[in-house]
Amino acid sequence: MYRQYDEETLKRVQNTEKEILVKFIEICEKYNLKYFAAFGTLLGAIRHRGFIPWDDDIDVGMLRKDYEKFLKVAQKECGKEFFIQTVDTDPKYHLFFGKMRMCNTQFVENSLQQADSVTGFYIDIFPFDAVPDEKKKMTRQLKKAERLSILLSVNKVKEPQIGNYSKVKTSVMWGIWYILHYGMKIFHITGEKIWRSCEKTFSKYDQEETQQVTCFFPDAEKWLIKISELDQLEEILFEDIKINVPVGYDAILTRNYGDYMKLPPKEKRINHMPVTIQFPGEEKLDL
To answer: Between 20 and 30 A from 136 (CA), which of 11, 16, 68, 171?
Structure first.
């Protein structure tokens, strides 16, 4: 989805998210936890030395072992200023990865207006898990993990969380979403049960020596990253702070974006512009 901000509001959104990132980095450095810029944030860091000009979120990745350590220590370090949101800390939360939220703020996205989960400015924190090198095993794990991550969202949120498609395809997908959502309620299939299956599937190969990792989105195979590409990290400028990026960023970005230094046309740009926003210490604002 893409909605255009006015320039001042977008800059304030980005600066608020950057504040969260600064605290996240501080915690990682204190506990010697390895993290790296991921997805659009990695692209922005390389191409723009900061945010993609129209982007309004921050994505960081961590290998599973560092991610789990972060979850254990982060809330204590955050105090009352930030909230570490996961399925375990917020029963209404519908995603398999964590968010670090700024308390006493709001950032309510259009498709989540009826959700009861915690809102607020955030950064996304993505766990990357081992993927087997054998193609058949990898395909089985990816398909199962992707199905489960989608079912988790369907179970937790009534409003369909889907992208832009034709009217017919959108109607069909909305119908399937509602059938599955209410069907799971009828048959008492809980989000807790689905989440435990997610955890088991995601981490199935984490104790094995594999050559690649991924984050289990619906297009997880697209984001396979070689361990060798993450072996070393380097600090680069992101706006007016520094952030870690993998030394293998060129291969990672090329696989996913092709000529990643070329700006996409407007119709292919994506952001998360909210319908309601509340900056720290201010009143709510409808956009």
So the answer is: 68
